[in-house]
Structure formats: structure tokens, C-alpha cells
What does this fold into?
Amino acid sequence: MLIDWRMGPPDGIATLTQLRQLLGSATPPSILVTAFDDSAMWQQAREANFGAVLLKPVTASALHDSLLQVLQGRVAAVAAPPDAPSAGEAALGQHHAGQRVLLVEDNAINQEVAGELLRSASLEVELVADGQQAVALALSRHYDLILMDLQMPVMDGLTAAGSIRRRAETATPIVAMTANAFNEDRAACLDAGMNDHLPKPVDPELLYTKLLRWLPPRKNLAERGAATVDAAGAVPALHDRLAAVEGLDLASALACSGGNCSILTRVLRRFVETYLTGDPALLSADLAPGAPRWHAACHSLRGACSTVGATAVVGPLRAFEQALKNAGDAAELAPAAQALDQSVRALATRIAAALAGRGRPPDARLHWDSRRRWWHRAISSRWRTSLDACAAARPASPWSAAPGR
It folds into this structure.
């Protein structure tokens, strides 16, 4: 949806807020259209969870870039068979196998997904959970590339990237990972010395495109081993059980796992391990101003749910985060926090049952041909190119040139 800001009443912000309350996770991706480029507008657009902001006068290229940005992850095409490496994954395995990537991410589910995607491309991965650890490792060891989350405990990604740039002797490429896709966030990444920006949940093909761009060239790489695939008979049965899980968007989950059912299975198991007993932070009273503990829990949980396709929980989490920002007394939202915890536990229980083979029996009417067509659509690559208008429009920086290019 393209929604003008200065309407009324209600204005564009209020319009999207009301639509989210009515439609929940079924709300289409939305772009705020406005002629007012000021900080207050950007803050309101972020809080309302607009996918992008389009400034007037609208140009064809700006409209094109904005539509690509918000439709990321929603374009499907005919895909390769399950578990077959994509073109980007194959290229990484051929030209960059064995190169070292430092993954800086505090969320366990996102760690699992990103780590598996990197390893499936024959890259060596080292994982840390906050910016302080990332700085320590980056200054003491060699890495070919750093993938850096922005919102983390102890030290955030922007601070860590700035510290690495000031103190490191080599200009290791740093790619930011963030759920915020606004131009000002991209600008902040570039100002901190980062080379590029990767939106979350991570799209596998876009991740591979960024890696191919920024990983330095290397010769005499070891050949990539053959990928291990699931038994042919296991895929349809698992597909049917997971497809029957209420609140789980299997197409989205597969796409975030690069269409690799082995990766998806491991990620879902990690989700179950992490959230089968809920999130303790949601059950604890958060009486501090602004309820920071609830905010942090919701941010992490929403990222995990988006990655595994838990659409039934993502919408309520966004609504709760918005309610926290508007609430005079956060304690009044304790019942809502408990309800979210119950929803997460229930979903994790349903996923656990499906993984264990106790899900709803497959529908006999869903024969193999229809399953195969659905599977191919689900795992298709949804994002083939990356257009970064903001980076292109900014002056060149010492960090903005891809290595060896």
C-alpha cells in the first residue's frame, strides 16, 4: 500500500495503525508518501512499521526502489529442486570457500539461520553475541568479512563498527544487519564505516549477493563438497506436517532458510528449544520507565518469529511494541505480555509436535504433484538484485569500494 501522510482525519500514520489492528499479520507492506522530510516524520513512520518512506515529488526511480524494498521476500519464481544450491551459493563455494566470516548477532534463531547459510556456502563462521566481543576478535584475528547486527546488548553494532574502523590496521568489509530499512539507518551504517546494509529477516540470495560483492578475491580455494540432502521420502511428510501448523508460514520459513529443508529443520528445533517454555522477560514485571526489558524481549522475539515464519505472533508483537510506546503505565500491559508468552509457547509446542512426527495427518487430497509445485514455489529465490539508492547518492568513503573491484 502507498499511503499519503498528510490526510485527515485520520492521517497516513493513523490509517496504517488501524489497518494493522484489523488485519494483523495480513497487513500488506506499506510505503508512507510525503513531501515533509523531517526527523519527526521519520520517527513516526518507524514506530508505525512502514516498510519505506517515499518523498515527493515522486520520481520513477525512487518509486521503483521503494517498491523493491518493501516487496523483498514476496516475489516468487520457479525454483530449483529442494536443497539444490542457488547460483549465489554455488558461486561462493567456487570462489570463496574457506574464507572466514565473523557473525555478530545476539538472537539465537538468527544465529542459527545466518550461520547455516554461511556454512552451506563453504565459508568458515565464527560467532559472537555483542559488539564488544566483535571488536576484541576483529583486532586480534583476521576475518575476510564481518556481518554485524545493529541492536545488541553491551555494545551496539554502530559503536562496534566505528571502534573497529578507528583501531584496526586492515579495512575488513563490514555489512550491517538490521530490521530497519529506512534511508537514515543506511546512512548511519555508512557513517560508522560499514560498507553495506542487509535487511532482516535475511534473504539468502541477497545475503549471497552481498558476500560476493564484498569478500576479497582468493585463489586456489578448495573445492566444495557435495551437499547432504534429506531422504526423498522425508521431505513430503515433513512438509505436510509443518504446513498444517497453525500460525506458521512455511513458505516464508523456507525462503529465509534458502529453501534448504535441513537448515529449516535445525532452525525450527532451535526455536523450540529457545521458546518452548516461553520468554521469562514477558512474564516479569517491567516497571522501569519505557519498559526497556519488554522492549528488548519483543525486539528479539519478533526477529526470531519473522525468521521462522511465525506470522501469527509477529503482528501481535508489533502491536504490543506500539502499545508500550504509547502507554502511560506499562504495568497495565502485563496481561498482554502474558498473552504473548502463551502464544509463543503454544506455537513452539505445535512446531515441536510436527518435527517429532505428531502433527496433523497429511490431507489425502494433497497428492505429490501439488506438494512438489508448492515446495518449489516456497523455496524460490525471492530477491535477485540489490539496489541501494542511498549509498549510491552519498559521497564515496574510504570503505565504500568493494575489494578487488
Q: What stands out?
A: Residues 73-82, 220-235, 360-397 have pLDDT under 50 and may be disordered.
